[in-house]
Specification:
Strand order of the largest sheet: 4-3-2-1-5-6
Largest sheet: 6 strands, mixed
Helix content: 25-40%
Strand content: 15-25%
CATH architecture of the largest domain: Alpha-Beta Complex
Length: 376
């Protein structure tokens, strides 16, 4: 069993979020918020939607879990929230309605994950609770998740470090002539060996931004430059990492551009200090890129990360974003250029009271990694 997380801070924030949204309670159903609020890591919910799990969080701080018949042992190992089992005979939605009635919430203002729930499920809930007022709580729940607890940050740091070790291992095992499919296999196997629960996605980019997601049988040739980008998961928390790899000999203009980008990446992270806005940091990033003759490929520099690779309704590091950096926020920072080659960095950064701290880089990436060589 993975480590339990102390949730007093999370519970207090949830009560505050419910009050600020003028709700009587929220009903949580998503994999992400069940992990955050109840310590239940249930990745199968994304592909087996009929296995409904509900968490009722009331404005007074009381909570209740409704789980399928097969889950009681697992739930009781992971959480101290009172558990009620719904039977397949009664059905999930009728059981939820009964639980809310018993708590006097059948005519209340109920927050739901409207952007997560299927339209059919929302209709079912409305039918079994005709007098309740159903209100989207998506924004309130996302804001609740943006500030991570120390335990959450520790797991994100763990999966980030595992991902970097996997890349170092796969790069050292790589060789000229292997296909990108073979190299992708090395990355996946290395990730599992490093202790991750899942490889959520993997993209290799040999030549252009369009060739990102589907491995092919194209062999790796001398002089090629490509990026590795993948999302990994441990106990429900994700990393999103990107590194650039070259096959010797490396053209001089590519090495020069890469070193300039490395400098911009480092300076950008240093600017992510508590109390300043995302917009002001992003403006300085773009100015730094221009001063170095570089042009960012995408419209955003990074995103919040945690219980998803792009956390829910992601907070983007982009132009005009007014959000203020606060201690406990975690971001993926990923500048990318496409000329003279596709060159990219991506690291995970936590905002602390003393400034930003990189969670994902224990090796030297200031110079291009060379396929078949060990990264120091």
């Amino acid at each position: 069993m993975k480590r339990p997380m102390h949730d007093r801070t999370v519970r207090e924030r949830t009560v505050q979020a419910i009050a600020e949204a003028e709700l009587d309670a929220v009903v949580v159903t998503s994999r992400q918020n069940l992990r955050h609020l109840a310590n239940l890591y249930l990745p199968h919910l994304s592909v087996v939607p009929e296995e409904h799990v509900f968490l009722i969080c009331r404005r007074d701080g009381e909570r209740q879990l409704l789980i399928p018949e097969w889950m009681p042992t697992y739930a009781k190992e992971r959480t101290d929230i009172p558990v009620t089992v719904w039977s397949y005979g009664t059905g999930a939605w009728n059981s939820l309605a009964d639980a809310l009635r018993q708590q006097g919430l059948d005519e209340a203002r109920i927050g739901i994950e409207a952007e997560y729930m299927a339209a059919a499920d929302r209709d079912r809930l409305a039918r079994v609770l005709p007098k309740a007022t159903l209100v989207s709580a998506d924004r309130a729940l996302l804001a609740n998740r943006l500030l991570k607890t120390p335990d959450e940050i520790a797991v994100i740091a763990e999966v980030a470090a595992a991902g970097e070790r996997a890349m170092v291992e796969a790069i050292a095992e790589g060789r000229e002539g292997m296909t990108d499919r073979e190299f992708a296999k090395e990355l996946r196997l290395a990730s599992i060996r490093q202790g991750v629960d899942e490889v959520s996605w993997l993209a290799l980019n040999w030549a252009s931004p369009e060739q990102r997601t589907q491995p092919t049988d194209r062999p790796i040739r001398p002089g090629q430059v490509f990026s590795i980008e993948f999302g990994l998961c441990i106990d429900g928390y994700y990393s999103d990492l990107q590194r650039t790899v070259a096959v010797a000999p490396v053209p001089g203009d590519v090495q020069e551009a890469y070193e300039k980008l490395a400098g911009v990446h480092e300076r950008t992270i240093a600017r992510m200090t508590p109390g300043r806005s995302v917009a002001s940091m992003h403006d300085e990033f773009l100015a730094d890129m221009r001063d170095n003759g570089l042009q960012m490929w995408d419209w955003w520099l990074g995103h919040s990360i945690g219980l998803d690779v792009h956390e829910g309704l992601s907070l983007w590091l982009r132009e005009g974003e007014k959000t203020i950096f606060e201690p406990g926020m975690v971001f993926a920072v990923e500048p990318v250029i496409t000329e003279p080659a596709v060159l990219a960095f991506e690291d995970l950064v936590v905002i602390e009271t003393t400034g930003p701290r990189v969670l994902s880089s224990q090796h030297n990436w200031d110079t291009l990694a060379i396929l078949g060589e060990r990264v120091e």
